[in-house]
User: Which sequence fits this backbone?
């Protein structure tokens, strides 16, 4: 009997993981997903290029924008790496793969290749469309767009490897003992990755953004934009490209070295998450005496959030949103275009809605569904417990940003109404997207690693959820954005003297609409839970 | 179709066993009984109430998943509260139940840190905290160690003495024979036979002292080629 070589083993593992995952239905879902992504990319890039043409923006700003976009992706991957999801391992992997005599580093290689394959399938078409749109604008050849796409793919693979490395490091002594250093590292990478946005603030020296040039997102953005804009070719871009491949080599070697140990460590890290809160002399924080059922439900959620990593996820979402609001306001772009602020906030808010979607607790629904509580009300109370903290973190930022803006804009009443509407609108959009997140989590469930790796139906459900969530969230928040959009025209038609009445009326309408939307989405979420039968 | 034309009457205070091969429809029937799944047609009555009277039922699923981030006490307080147990009775009820399952020392431990057997005991306590009139237990003894099995069996016996109607789905034929007054054998979503062990033996045309295992195999037409053991 011949023993397969490393490549043969990696190929066998990939076939085993891929098998059955790409059915006709999955492929159809992927095609529809790609279609919507491409439409979105075309819309976004055309809007950006038209704005860029009108205002006379340089390619430098395109580089900053792309660097920021890639940075958001990178930070998301780093976060998932720290959450132990950088290298998805299912129970059947542990049962059948890790018990086989396959060297762990070959398992690592197969896992990374599989992740990269999915990313290439999902990511490459929209990326190419984006670069083709840019190359058409800058009159460069289509081959430049393809090359730029390949460079960005290298960046995506670096991100995936980095995420896998971080997850591997959790099981190799870096875990709890090095928690402080771990947190310092993630904050540092986040701050460095987001530095390009500071260029939007008037008066900030341009040299600040150069620091990000050493990070994969900055390098990939510089080379890709250079290629599609026809400015690449110099030594600087060649050095950037080489440095990008150095990053790739470094994270690959690091991963291979760490994967020499067993992946069991990863599962141990996950198992210990709950145990670190286990203290022998702790007392119940859920004393029910004198409390209503619903306050107990909220308290239960708060305890669970505090004993998991969700608090950190909430804080990271809040930091993102708050940081964005502050920088956007300081840049002066806010006053000239509060609508674009809300639109971008919607995109970031959709990421933040992940915080609310974690509630679904599919396996534990038997506890709720076999009790006489109303699922509609239950979902609303969970929403209060999970969404309210994020809004509370953001409210002071909105006030801090809003008061100086409003006071400073008193001389320009036509623009002032948009700002007045946009500030609470930021919180309204965040709250609607979170309610949307809960509805879709209720309807389609939250995928565990096992679900994703073993069930094609779950994968299809995830694609559907992503599509519907994006579209419906956008539809639900569009009236809030529309109100800001029409505010300037309304002030011009009616005159500045109507500003206070308009402000009061439109803010009231906006809040009323938000309340109705949240109520509608949460009722649908409750009904979806009632109908769920996959227990 | 998971269930087809199932019709059963279960008396008050009775322990009723559900037997059947894997995939026969036992768990589906129990989930419909407790209102988690909706039947495509037909009704389920509990005393003079409809099935929405969930306060009267205690349900234990086959693989109960608990809130691992709560302590045992917090978990039971939460479940008791949403099932309508009065505040002044809840802590006392929890303490007594923990004592009867020898889990007092674990009251402030996170559920996630408990062993499988302990988690099963906690789930059983949660099932009965609100003193239900009907207990619906889906494979309550699966994968438990012998010591835990004994304590769970004792607990089921205790519930029976209190007059609680118990519907018990199990693969453990000894448990069914010992505890259940009547047994329904389900196969391919249909009731193959209902009755006490004696009448099931008659229906299966087996000897009067035939083991329930043989009766079960005979009635589900999965009997092996080996002769019936006496």
Assistant:
């Amino acid at each position: 009997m011949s023993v397969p070589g490393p490549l043969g083993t990696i190929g066998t593992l990939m076939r085993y993981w891929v098998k059955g995952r790409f059915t006709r239905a999955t492929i159809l879902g992927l095609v529809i997903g790609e279609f919507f992504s491409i439409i979105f990319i075309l819309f976004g890039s055309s809007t950006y290029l038209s704005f860029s043409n009108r205002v006379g923006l340089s390619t430098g700003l395109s580089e900053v924008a792309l660097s920021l976009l890639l940075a958001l992706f990178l930070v998301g991957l780093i976060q998932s790496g720290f959450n132990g999801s950088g290298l998805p391992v299912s129970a059947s992997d542990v049962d059948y793969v890790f018990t086989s005599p396959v060297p762990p580093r070959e398992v690592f290689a197969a896992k990374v290749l599989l992740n990269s394959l999915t990313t290439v399938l999902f990511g490459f078409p929209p990326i190419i469309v984006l670069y083709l749109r840019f190359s058409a604008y800058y009159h460069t050849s289509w081959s430049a767009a393809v090359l730029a796409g390949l460079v960005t793919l290298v960046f995506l693979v670096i991100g995936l490897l980095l995420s896998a490395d971080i997850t591997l490091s959790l099981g190799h002594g870096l875990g709890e003992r090095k928690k402080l250093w771990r947190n310092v590292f993630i904050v540092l990478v986040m701050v460095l990755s987001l530095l390009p946005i500071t260029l939007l603030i008037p008066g900030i020296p341009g040299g600040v953004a150069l620091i990000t040039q050493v990070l994969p997102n900055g390098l990939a953005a510089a080379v890709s934009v250079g290629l599609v804009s026809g400015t690449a070719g110099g030594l600087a871009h060649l050095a950037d490209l080489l440095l990008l491949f150095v990053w790739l080599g470094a994270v690959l070697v690091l991963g291979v070295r760490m994967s020499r140990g067993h992946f069991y460590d990863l599962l141990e890290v996950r198992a210990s998450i709950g145990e670190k809160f286990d203290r022998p002399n702790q007392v119940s924080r859920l004393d029910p005496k004198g409390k209503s059922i619903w306050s107990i439900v909220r308290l239960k959620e708060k305890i669970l959030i505090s004993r998991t990593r969700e608090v950190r996820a909430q804080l990271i979402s809040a930091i993102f949103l708050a940081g964005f609001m502050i920088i956007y306001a300081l840049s002066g772009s806010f006053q000239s275009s509060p609508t674009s602020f809300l639109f971008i906030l919607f995109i970031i808010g959709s990421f933040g809605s992940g915080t609310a979607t974690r509630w679904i607790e599919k396996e534990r629904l038997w506890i709720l569904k076999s009790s006489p509580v109303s699922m509609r009300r239950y979902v609303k109370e969970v929403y209060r417990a999970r969404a309210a903290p994020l809004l509370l973190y953001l409210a002071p930022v909105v006030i801090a940003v809003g008061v100086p803006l409003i006071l400073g804009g008193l001389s320009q009443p036509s623009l002032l109404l948009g700002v007045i509407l946009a500030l609470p609108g930021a919180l309204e959009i965040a709250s609607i997207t979170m309610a949307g997140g809960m509805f879709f989590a209720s309807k389609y469930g939250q995928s565990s690693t096992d679900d994703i790796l073993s069930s094609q139906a779950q994968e299809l459900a995830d694609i559907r959820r992503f599509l519907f969530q994006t579209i419906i969230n956008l539809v639900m928040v569009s009236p809030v954005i529309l109100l800001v959009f029409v505010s300037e025209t309304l002030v011009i038609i009616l005159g500045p003297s109507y500003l206070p009445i308009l402000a009061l009326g439109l803010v009231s309408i906006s809040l009323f609409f938000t309340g109705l939307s949240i109520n509608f989405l949460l009722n649908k979420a409750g009904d979806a839970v009632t109908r769920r039968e996959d227990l | 179709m998971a269930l087809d034309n199932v019709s059963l009457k279960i008396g008050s205070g009775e322990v009723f066993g559900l037997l059947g091969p894997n995939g026969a429809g036992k768990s589906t029937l129990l989930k419909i009984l407790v209102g988690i799944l909706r039947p495509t047609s037909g009704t389920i009555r509990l005393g003079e109430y409809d099935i929405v009277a969930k306060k009267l039922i205690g349900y234990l699923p086959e693989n109960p998943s608990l809130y691992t981030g709560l302590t045992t006490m917090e978990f039971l307080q939460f479940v008791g509260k949403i099932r309508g147990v009065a505040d002044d009775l809840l802590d006392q009820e929890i303490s007594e139940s923990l004592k009867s399952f020898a889990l007092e020392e674990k009251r402030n431990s996170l559920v996630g840190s408990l062993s499988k057997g302990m988690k099963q005991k906690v789930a059983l306590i949660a099932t009965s905290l609100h003193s239900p009139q009907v207990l619906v237990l889906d494979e309550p003894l699966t994968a438990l160690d012998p010591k835990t099995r004994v304590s769970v069996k004792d607990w089921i016996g205790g519930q029976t003495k209190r007059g609680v109607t118990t519907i018990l789905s199990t693969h453990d034929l000894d448990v069914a024979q010992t505890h259940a007054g009547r047994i329904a054998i389900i196969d391919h979503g249909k009731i193959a036979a209902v009755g006490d062990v004696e009448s099931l033996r008659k229906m299966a045309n087996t000897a009067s002292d035939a083991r329930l295992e043989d009766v079960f195999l005979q009635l589900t037409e999965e009997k092996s080629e080996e002769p019936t053991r006496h």
User: Anything to note?
Assistant: Strands of chain B lie at 15-19, 45-46, 49-50, 57-60, 134-138, 165-169, 182-187, 190-195. Residues 223-230 of chain B have pLDDT under 50 and may be disordered. Chain B is about 35% helix and 15% strand. The helical segments of chain B are 26-33, 72-82, 87-100, 116-128, 146-161, 173-179, 197-203, 212-219.
